Structures
1.
Amino acid sequence: MIVCANPKAQYKSYKSEIDEAISKVLEGDKYILGDEVEAFETEFADFNRSKYCIGVGNGTDAIEISLRALDIGPGDEVITVSHTAVATISAIERVGASPVLVDIDYNYFSLDTNYLEGSLTSKTKAIVLVHLYGQAGDIVHVEEFCKKNDLYLIEDVAQAHGAFYKEKRLGSFGKVGCFSCYPTKNLGAIGDGGLITTDDKSLYEEMLKVREYGWVKRNSVIKGINSRLDEIQAAILRVKLKYLDNDNSRRNEIAKIYNSINLEEVLTPLTRPDSTHVYHQYVCKVQKRDELMEYLSSNDIFAGIHYPFPVHEQPAYKKLVKPHSLEVTEKVCKEIISLPMYPELPKESAFLVKEIIEEFY
Ligand SMILES: *Cc1c(COP(=O)(O)O)cnc(C)c1O
């Protein structure tokens, strides 16, 4: 059986180090916000060449905490896309702001900057740029637009830990970078976790307060939430961070095999110029998608769809603001397939996936 993602395989490959890291926490005397979290925050900030990093409960909270600390709330609008994890949009709604959904571009699956001008209003405060599947969105144009219109750029880097645009890692371009450490992500915990990066000291201090009840010295000076990364997850993530670049290279090796699929019916993913791709997902646009999925699963190969429904078509989100129709978003949902992808996936398995796809067409 070949599965789409396999966090257990990653545990197995670093088992002795992870087990040791966990028992060190168990035998220690602090289980929340102790040395492990602090060390991990410093190490991740170094890795990302950001000045500050905060460990939080999950990726959705990372976005929510950023928005709150930037004082974005009711009456404000935040531009983002519908072709993303529902988390991106739920975080915007949780602070009381209105998500404004723009379409994506067909080649790279990310926010189409041609729509930005037409989506801007006097209420627009920020753009959440999702670096989907493992590579940069259109960072140059989004950055430029944010600067020109005095908007905050919030990067959703939940799927692109370690990826570069030119010489810089994603999550170091915007006012803040928001990461998820959900188990299947490129840097995944064995449970929930999230991270926020920033270069802005006062924003960093504000976000620290929001993370834990608005506290300064156990005194709630503002209203906060509770979203802490725990010591066990931080200890595990410290182990995995050391191997992140290497794991991302292994994903690239697998992608190379899939890239050699040479069929009219299969459009393999493109990498944006000047970018590296870390293939959180390897997403092709294919003909007869559902039939292909079925054929693969009859051969014990389990592909995924990220995502089967755009957020604006899901029952809870039908009333979201859309300045224009989301044609490309709605079109790609029917064509996309995520092939099995994780660092430990044996090369022979990737070749087999390729073979079965060729056989199908
Ligand atoms: C996973 C993900 C999130 C949310 O992260 P959680 O840790 O599950 O809250 C946000 N945005 C994107 C693009 C994601 O893939």
2.
Amino acid sequence: MGTYARQDIVFVRGEGCWLTAETGERYLDFGSGVAVNSLGHAHPQLVAALKAQAEKLWHTSNLYRVEGQETVADKLTRLTFAEQVFFCNSGAEACEGAIKVARRYHYVSGDPNRQRIIAFRGAFHGRTLATLAAAGNEKYLEGFGPTAEGFDHVDLGDLEALEAAIGPETAAIMLEPIQGEGGVRAVSPEFLRAVRELCDKHGLLLVLDEVQTGMGRTGKLFAHEWAGITPDVMAIAKGFGGGFPVGAVLATAKAAKGMTPGTHGSTFGGNPLAMAVASTVLDVISEPGFLEAVQLKTLRLKQGLEGLRDQHAELVEEVRGAGLLMGLKLKAHVAPPQVVKAANEEELLIVGAGDNSVRVLPPLIATEDEIGEGLRALSRALTRVARETSR
Ligand SMILES: *Cc1c(COP(=O)(O)O)cnc(C)c1O
């Protein structure tokens, strides 16, 4: 179906931060398949894990215990706030699952009327009908019939409006620590802490969507760690499988208490292939020094982008984001596809985003040299755009 406005490039091979097109051209991948290829392409440990599992067992369904799920859940519960994990296949499913966990919690707590969820304008939680309703983006809802009930929306960062929106039917507050698709709009640590406090004060669950910000993307395993808070429920996907489709809903035991046999499920969720890869991704990212190295590279990228903003002040309004989830908000007369296209012409891949911005998302394994190379390519791309826009 014609659902995508695709670039006319076909990639046939990937290695580390590099992708080779069928034409033989090599591109530096600073999009990471939209924050998915966290460990780059063809990471030897991931390839080995998938190959080994492929020869043993692919799928059994969730009618039986799945060893890989127990292993990955063990690692996730050791590394995070979570005590319970549900495995699925995508970010939208993880968000949808998180919404179900939050509503069900109040239902089994004797508060069945508490089912509304407060979310934020500019958010993105996926393309299922409920997650579209959660984000409330009119553009994505148009023409798809009745909008799923039970979501209220406030402006990102507006604490007063948030508290005012809380009512007797509110079950949870749901947000991304950095709005990725929405234009790399970060939530301040103070705001995140204030949201946590509001949840505690009103008996609400805090649901974080770390589908894009998680798995080391910001230099911590999960972005909320920077604020020193923990959520009650969290959706993850994207970088979790390093390119293999897998997602998960993480929760405290308390928040997940309503998720009893039969309340939720997935045929493919957490199948042995996905678990073999996700387990290895977690091992690599949680190796001592890995995230510290990401934090160092982050500095290089941020400084470089700030340099580009100064150099191209007529095109770039501001540098946004954290870690290796960075963005450039463009001036109103510059359109993100122009910059993406100019970058492609410099054999650099970056990704467009909302709020007139572009995202720069190198794989977490990018070297300082590769980051330098990407910055130089982006600088040349901006020079191209400057030439075009002044014509
Ligand atoms: C990409 C994304 C999703 C949706 O993930 P899919 O795997 O495309 O369903 C949800 N939330 C956030 C924050 C995302 O970035």
